[in-house]
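Input structure tokens:
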């Protein structure tokens, strides 16, 4: 409906609410596999980033240069945050929905853990 089926959807962490729903709740997927993709994929033509689930009504995927400084990097990669603090947990729930959208496919050269 929104054209998001033309993209490979990547997340910044090894967790995403849609993966949890598909594997644990709906049982549509068995054994989710998390690939490590190089950040250099962000420089590829046509790559977009969305600060939420991209197929949600009203979502606005943008080129990396337009959104990268608006993302909550502290919550994504700040390992010393206290997760039990409600404000940090809420920030994490939002950040886990961020998506990188790569047109058509992710080239093998960007995938770091294909062999295990």
């Amino acid at each position: 409906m929104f054209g998001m089926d033309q993209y490979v959807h990547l997340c910044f962490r090894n967790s995403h609410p849609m993966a949890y729903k598909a594997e644990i709740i709906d049982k549509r997927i068995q054994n989710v596999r998390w690939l490590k993709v190089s950040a250099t994929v962000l420089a590829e033509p046509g790559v977009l980033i969305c600060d939420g689930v991209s197929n949600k009504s009203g979502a606005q995927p943008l080129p990396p240069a337009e959104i990268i400084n608006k993302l909550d990097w502290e919550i994504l990669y700040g390992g010393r945050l206290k997760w039990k603090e409600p404000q940090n947990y809420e920030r994490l729930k939002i950040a886990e929905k961020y998506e990188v959208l790569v047109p058509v496919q992710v080239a093998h050269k960007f995938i770091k853990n294909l062999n295990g």
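The helical segments are 17-25, 64-67, 73-77, 86-95. The longest helix spans residues 86-95.
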